[in-house]
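EI: anyone free to look at a 131-residue chain?
SC: sure, send it
EI:
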Amino acid sequence: MALNGFLVAMLTVLVTKWMQHYKERAVFIIASCFYGIGMIIFGNTLNIWVMFLAIIFYTAGELMTVGIQDGFVARLAPKQMRAQYFAASSLRFSLGRTIAPLAIPMTVWIGYEPTFIILSVLAFLSAGFMA
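SC: here you go
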């Protein structure tokens, strides 16, 4: 968590400016793939340094999307419906907060590695839906 917070604080502006040079769709797809790669790495290691690498992948995916998401929604939404579009956009956080607590008992039910494989598959599926 500390590494994620540090990287977010240090790199948000830089990565947001960098990602503005690319199409939103491509950025969203790549970010989902970074999330998936981070999940695979995290689920297949007990080495703390490799876990830091996984966190770097998560954070990179997060930083790629955070800066451009609001601009994407604002351009997509008609003026009279912007509030509804932003509310729908925030559902990704609500869905994540719903799935995340399920991951803890899943590690007991099906195992640590299979849980992270499922989570990575969900991330890669989200990239596939955008492609």
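EI: Residues 11-130 form one domain.
SC: 👍
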